[in-house]
Amino acid sequence: MTPSILFGKITKFALNIVGMTGTALPGKVAMIINPDLLLILNSRCKRKVIITGTNGKTTTNNLINHILNSEYEDILSNLMGANMPQGVASAFLNNTKKVYDWGIFEVDEGSFPDVVKYIEPDYVVITNFFRDQLDRFGEIENTSNIVYEAIKPLNTTLILNADDPMVSNFKDLGKKNVYYGVEQTKFSSKTQRVVESRFCPICSNNLEYEYFNYGQLGRYKCNSCDFKNPNYNYRVSEIEYHDDSYHFKVDNSKGQTNDVIFRYDGIYNAYNCCAAIAFSIEAGLDMEQVVERIDNFDYKLGRMENFEFQDKIVKIVLVKNPIGLSEVIKSISNDKRKKSLLFILNDNPADGTDVSWIWDANVEAINDIDNLTSIHCSGIRANDIALRIKYSESSKNNMEINDNMEESIENVLREDVEIIYILPTYTAVFLTRDYIMGHLNHTNARIPRIKELIKSKIGT
Amino acid sequence: MELNIFHMYPDLLNLYGDIGNVTCLKKRCEWRGIKINIVDFSLGNEADINCADILFMGGGSDRGQNIVYSHFLKYKNDVSNAIEDSSVFLAICGGYQLLGESYIDANGMKIPGLGVFDYTTESEEKRLIGNIIIKNKLGLNPKTIVGFENHGGRTYHDYNALGSVVVGNGNNGKDELEGMIYKNCLGTYLHGPLLPKNPHLADHIILTALKRKYDIKSLDVINDDLEYAAHEKVFELYTNGKV
User: Fold this and answer.
1) How would DSSP label each residue in A174-222?
2) Which of A140, A322, A387 lies closest to B197 in CB terms?
3) pLDDT at position A460, please?
4) Which of A70, A121, A347, B18 has its CA 20 to 30 A from that of A77?
5) A383 vs B62: CB contact, 8 Å cut-off?
């Protein structure tokens, strides 16, 4: 065992004693001792895929893991969503083997160059580029540029979202490209309030859209040059929502078509599924196998995770940027059950210290939600999200503001409703989850609070 | 009573929740029974700037700002006249920089601004990012204005400042001043949703515009408990014992 692995393991052991599962800290420690830890990891994985982009990394990572698990036993992955270099290293410390069939890593856009310095991916999956954490990256063009430049020297296959103009222009890099996308469906719209980029990435003129699926993802073309969606290699179409699930068709350029069922809300998941399918088939799995795995996929760790609490269902959905929040509110309005919402807005470094983004989200769509009994607002910036809701004119709903997260969770669990939606930002996801699990297991729920405190200090 | 708000280039300049300011002005007027007309002024949707009671301009990416600059230049005289005529103008971040003489980018390249004002902005590599609290020089009560800043440019000018910096960087991180005031034109680096958490500033803008148009002296009082709670929270979290 090399010293860096050893020290990382010691840190992990120490954190376990104080009740923390510590997703990134052990990796941080190990990387300080040996910044080349990722090189060791690189040499031990036979094949590697890196998933990057703004939204959908964790879901796509979990989906790909679940699918590849049907074929391969030894997979190394940072499934917990710690997607900076130290998070990738931590995954390794949790599970040190001599050889892995696959390394599957989700990597934050800003950390992408630092990770690919050491890890040579056979595949890079790019989901989308949205405004997120501008306090770290400056502007969205910078974000995509950071990834673009870092891919230049790599010998890799790119799995690209054809419907995001900021992603599809990566074809200019001249790598082997595989395109995925979602056709126009009844969930598409002709207009989109939150458009991140309406300029052609090639010539800067306006892009003209036939329809939008999600943010700037849709069917676009440039009026001045010939830039438009590339032809799909993998395509989702005919999306229907019934029995709490999305049903759609997926086909590949060889003309095979399969029916897919995905049990979680949100049209953005059609893109996540399509990305995972495209990658898995390219990696050599067959379509039937892939589709079956998607059917029996279970979410982990606060991404649309469902709990049954007494006679209620509790859903936790991470929200972290305007597009994500807008889409989540839209998908909640498809649910007609009697419900309560709890927003938890934190401004720790890992959440983004700037909470301005809530004003770019279409919070006004709360008015389209039926049978909404109450709205709870919590987190460090509880007042900010409450204010945003006030200006969306949905103040006719009962609103409770409490910056104590534990109390807010307690209070919302007491509501007489069928379903509770909890929408936390990143650092609040783990606390929320642990706290609800604590309720389910009747264990002392104070430990998560200490964890949360430590987490906010170290900024994991 | 009614007011026309010109939202300048909302499709090109809206980086950090700038739309929140327009939402805030609109709602605060509507709650008082004042009619609001919002004109989205942009390429292909030009309107007569003389009709504006309040002009609002947000920040944008470099690319967005370049597109705006070449289009907006045609309206330089109209904007200048409107400001001299005491129209209310709130220009944020990129909008604030654009009204000046020039912007000198990180490579020393000089990019001309509209030149409505004679200040310059110089870009430096290190961005000034974080929560910011200033004491306003408009005579508003409370004195504090809270917000968030995220800019590479440093602006230097001899106009009155909007406020003095308590926490954060402001115009240039050196002279402890933030923003500018000229007649009823306000420039500031407090980006995005500046007005919702600063209802006294929002109402100052509304009242100034109404005074110019109608013979009124005050606004109806509305409940601002939530607005000030959010304001106070930022103050409590980020003053670090200063003030």
Assistant:
1) -SEEEEEEE---TT-BS--S--S--B-TTT-PBEEEEEEEETTEEEEEE
2) A387
3) 39
4) A347
5) no
CA-based nearest residue in chain B for residue A138: B150
For residue A76, which of A50, A109, A43, A45 has the smallest C-alpha distance? A45
Q: Verify whether residue B93 is a known catalytic residue.
A: yes
Tokens of B243: 């003030």
The pTM for the full model equals 0.75
Q: Using an 8 Å CB-CB cutoff, list chain B residues near A384.
A: 197, 230, 233
pLDDT of residue B192: 80
Which of B129, B148, B226 is the closest to A390 by Cβ? B226
- pLDDT value for A33: 54
DSSP for A349-407, please give it: TTT-S--GGGGTS-GGGGGG-SSEEEEEEESTTHHHHHHHHHTTT-TTSEEEE-S-HHH
φ/ψ of B45, rounded to 5, equals -140, 55
> Between residues B19 and A94, which one has the greater pLDDT?
B19
B201-206 average pLDDT score: 98
Quote ipTM for the complex: 0.95
> Exposed/middle/buried for A294, CB within 10 Å: 0-12, 13-18, 19+?
buried
At A74, phi and psi to the nearest 5?
-95, 95
Beta-carbon pairs below 8 A across chains A and B: 88
Token couple for A187: 């969930």
Q: What is the pLDDT of residue B36?
A: 96
Q: Give B26→chain A minimum CA distance, Å.
A: 9
Cβ <8 Å between A380 and B237: yes
- Are the Cβ atoms of A359 and B193 closer than 8 angstroms? yes
- What pLDDT does A197 receive? 58
Provide the residue count of chain B. 243
pLDDT < 50 positions in chain A: 18-19, 22, 302, 443-450, 453, 456-460
Give the burial string for A337-369 (b: 16+ CB within 10 Å, else e): eebbbbbbbbbbbbbbbbbbbbbbbbbbbbeeb
Q: How far is B148 from chain A (nearest CA, A)?
A: 7
Residue of A142, A203, A353, A359 to mutate for B, most B C-beta atoms under 10 A:
A359
Q: Give the tokens for residue A246.
A: 């999305």
Give tens-digit pLDDT for A69-122.
999 999 998 876 677 777 777 777 766 788 999 999 999 888 899 899 999 999
CA-nearest of A458, A415, A405 to A436 is A405
Which chain B positions have a beta carbon within 8 Å of A353's beta carbon?
Answer: 129-131, 148
